[in-house]
Amino acid sequence: MALKQQLQLKQQQKLSPLQMQVIKLTELPYLELEDRIRQELEDNPALEEGFDENNPNADDETLFDSDADSITQDDIALGDYLNEEDIPDYRLAANNRSYEDHREEIPFAVAESLNESLLAQLHLCNLNEEEQIIAEYIIGSIDESGYLERELSAISDDLLFQQNIDATPQKRNHVLHIIQQLEPAGIAARNLQECLLLQMERLPQNEINTLAKKILTDYFDEFSKRHFEKIQKTLSINESTLKEIIHEITSLNPKPGNAWDSSFALGNNAIVPDFIIEVHNGEVILSMNNRNIPELRVSRQYANMLQGYSGNKKSMTADAKNAVLFVKQKLDSAKWFIEAIRQRQETLQRTMQAIIELQYDFFVTGDETRLRPMILKDVAELSGYDISTVSRVSNSKYVQTYFGVYPLKYFFSESMQNDVGEEVSSREIKAILKDCVEHENKKKPLTDDKLSELLKEKGYLIARRTVAKYREQLGIPVARLRKEI
Question: Which of 229, 272, 273, 322 is disulfide-compatible with 398, CB 3.0–4.6 A?
Answer without folding.
Answer: 273
